[in-house]
Structure formats: structure tokens, C-alpha cells
Amino acid sequence: MDLRQLRYFTKLAETLNFHRAAEQLNISQPPLTVAIRRLEEELGAPLFARGPRGVRLTSAGAAALQPAREALQRAEMVREAVRLGSSGERGRLAIGFVGSAVSDCLPRVIPYFRERFPQVELVLEEMSTVDIAAGIESRQIDVGLVRLPVMNRAQLEITVIERDVLVVGVPAAHPLARRKTLALADLADQPFVVISPHSVLHTVVYIICQQAGFKPRVAQEANQLLTVLSLVQSGLGVTLVPSRLGRFAPESVRLIPLTDPVATDMGIACSPEAGPLVRNFVATALGASDSEPVSVS
After folding, report:
1. pTM reported for the whole predicted model
2. pLDDT, tens only, 248-271
3. Which residue range(s) make up the domain with 44?
4. CATH number, domain at 209?
5. Residues linked to residue 247 through DSSP beta bridges, in sequence order
6. How many CB atoms lie within 10 A of CB 25?
7. Same domain for 143 and 274
8. In this structure, are strands 54-57 and 48-51 parallel, antiparallel, or unpaired?
């Protein structure tokens, strides 16, 4: 028994006429007759009673009609699932994201994607950029929103989707808070509140401070940038954070631009061999971006 036989059976059951059923199936009548006879032989019971005025369903045929229709519907569901899966319109997508993505990038990208691909299940996990890169390489996750630069990116395809720069965060009562801009060297003697070492931003802060001629004197570390700002608000030190975090900064924290801006862009990372599901997410993320997408070479 195959789907073709079930399709022939249901069509004949609907028309109760071999000639009309064959026309609607776009076949000649003999193949239909043969297919129904073979189906009956396989099932071990007649499905139709033949007469001079046409055919009618037997009790066995009537009992088989609904299951046959359901089987065809399920087969169509399988066919549609395959189509949606192969085009990236259905499936499960594991997304890693850095904590700073929640301030601006993630709230723009996720609703935009869900609107366009409602049948895709999203599984999101906050991770460091290093862990996202490793997760994509090991196929534990499919795609990631990362803070650039990514130090180990040999197996990644990365595109900038959100331009940003670092700004200095100081308590509003701090003497430096009156300045319109600050140079990194102005912070040489200040205690720093920094993001924890697993973050790319931690490494960037150390590198640019060393380039400015000093090593940051760390007073406190935190796992989240919002916690960093809260600790700055408490007077524990100054910090360097992405400017897009500004709308989440406490009123008693002043964010001041650097005289020489330092980029801290957000990127989207995936495997160069990523399939259509990931490609749809990347394209949607770029469509939701408020920056011109740039590939990272």
C-alpha cells in the first residue's frame, strides 16, 4: 500500500465513478481500476461494490476512508515540513549572545525575525564571545551575536551589524564629570570598574589603556555591564562601556566621549557552511540593523 493507491482510493470514494475519478486524477481509467484492485487484494477485503450504475463503498471501504484521508494529510504535512526546513522557514535555531546585546541589538533582531519566520523555534543563551566562537565551531549553537574583535575566528564568518564606540562612565559627582571629552590618559590614576576577564571588552580595555601608557588599576569586576554601571554609580571607580548602553545608565552616572574614539562593534557570527536557517537569521539581523553591514576579514 502506498500514497498513490490511497489517493486513488479517496478520489474514487468521493466521486463513486471510475471515469470521473480518473479524469480528476489526470490518468486513464485502466490504471485506476488496476490500482484499486491491487489495494483491495493487499488489504484482503473489497473497498467498493461494483454495479451497472456505478460503485459504492462497502463497509470496509467506509471504515478505511477517514484513515486514508488522514494518512494523506500527514504525508502532506511531512512534505511541507521538508519544504520549510530546506528553505530555512522551520526548525530549531540555537543563538548565543553577549550580555551587551540585550541593550539594543537583541530587542531589534529577535522580534523582526519572529515576525518573518514564526515557525522557527529560537533557543537563546547568554555567552561570552569566546564561548560563542567555540560553540559555533563545535556545533553546540548555530549563530551568535558577538562583541568585536573576535580573537580566534579562523572558523567563523563574521559581519558587523551594529557600530559602536567606547565611552567613559564616571559618577556624576566625580571631578572628571564636568569634562565634555576625555582622553584615555586622563584615566591613568583612576580606579576602574571592568567587565570580567571572559569578555572581549575586558581585553580591549586593557589593550587600549596600555597603548595610552598605563595599566588600568582595577577596583572591581562584574559579569554584566549594567552591574558595572551600578558599581560606578556607587563611586567605586570609572569605566569604559559601549555608548549604546547609555539609555540604561543610572542618572547619577555620566557617559563622556573619548577624544580618540575606540570602536567596539557588534557582529553576527556563524559557520561559513551554515545552512538556510542560519542564513535567514543573518539576513534578518542585517535587515534589522541600524548600521551598514560590513564583513570582517
Report:
1. 0.71
2. 889 899 999 999 999 999 999 999
3. 3-86
4. 3.40.190.10
5. none
6. 18
7. yes
8. antiparallel
